[in-house]
Amino acid sequence: MKIVDIEMSEQFVDINAGMSVAQVTFHTDQNSQTHFTCLLRSEDVNAQPAPNQRLMFVRDALRQLRRMPEFRSGRDAITFGRRLLGAHEGLAA
Fold first, then answer.
1. Which pLDDT belongs to residue 85?
2. Inter-residue contact 85 to 91 (CB < 8 Å)
3. What angle do CA 27, 60, 56 make, to 5 degrees?
4. Helices (H), 1-92
5. b/e per residue, 34-54, with b = 16+ CB within 10 A?
6. What global pTM score does this model have?
């Protein structure tokens, strides 16, 4: 899977649960989309500047993606489009 764009939407805080929630969408070079709902502890998210908050959600979506059988087994690899590689240090981590 080659990720060529990353979109984050519907970010909100669930005050009752103490969680920050966001939808992360990976757009691929084959015109497909993979959507993830990411939940992170609000206190962890709020302790970071805005660019790092986005990165936290993207990393959580990547964690979820890597747990899918085709990636966990090594049958498929996750790569990033050239435009994303320099987008933010640690994006592919």
1. 66
2. yes
3. 100
4. 42-46, 50-66, 69-72, 82-85
5. eebebebebeebeeeeeeebb
6. 0.83
Count CB atoms within 10 A of the CB of residue 10: 9
Which tens digit of pLDDT belongs to each residue from 19-55? 999 999 999 999 999 999 999 999 999 999 988 999 9
* Of 14, 16, 21, residue with least CA distance to 36: 21
**31 CB-contact burial (10 Å; exposed 0-12 / middle 13-18 / buried 19+):** exposed
65/76 Cα distance (integer angstroms): 11
Distance from chain centroid for Cα 36: 7
- Any idea how long the chain is? 93
Q: What is the DSSP letter of 32?
A: -
Q: Give mean pLDDT, residues 75-92.
A: 72
